[in-house]
Amino acid sequence: MGQDKEITKVSYELKKRSVAVKEIQKIGANTLGIRFGGESLAGFRTASFDDHIKLFLETTEGERLGRHYTVRDYDPENKELTIEFGTHSTGPAARWASNAVPGDVAEIGGPKGSRIIPTNYDWHLLIGDNSSLPAIHRRVEELPSWTKAIVLVTLPDPADRRNIKSDADVSFHWIQSEDILLHKLKHLPLPAGEGVAWCAGEQDTITQVESILLKHFSMPKENVFVKPYWKRDKVKESLQA
Fold it and tell me: Where does the record place the FAD-binding FR-type domain (predicted)?
């Protein structure tokens, strides 16, 4: 990897911040975007598209729980943080988001730091599902005009597809199942030049994606980034929600 494409890692002071719901927006059929605000967000930092925070909520049953979420957007001027919640499940965090109203309070911790992947590759391959779509959305928005991006996202419900604006030359592939995604990936013509792949989602699927990229396409391991966000039939606190 060239000197100008080195990964930069930065650490932040870990602190908890009290925030309140300011606005709720429906995004697709199974996602809510919730914008939080609060003076405690002064000094909040997020330098990478896949940064995540831990959100602490108190459910209607009085249970206190914590879940990891991607920082979809942060507006430092207005001290506002946007997080997207999947509402297709019946879990307590999904129920909280579905019932949230402006003024509801929560607490966040993090990010602990950022792993900054440069944008100056010839092409970017972004692979995921509904859980990683907020990070993919943020990445596509920040790519420069002279680069290319290929986006493969598994979305069983076509109503979850979204219009993502970018200065880059981006091709989107909305795919109905993980099996179809893996088949399409194997037969995907990759652009010329040096590329980077970022893949996140269901653990077993992402493991297979990584294997295809390393073995079938012979991509350098240092150019392939994988993040298991969740595991089928099993919820892990360590995996991102």
Answer: 14-118
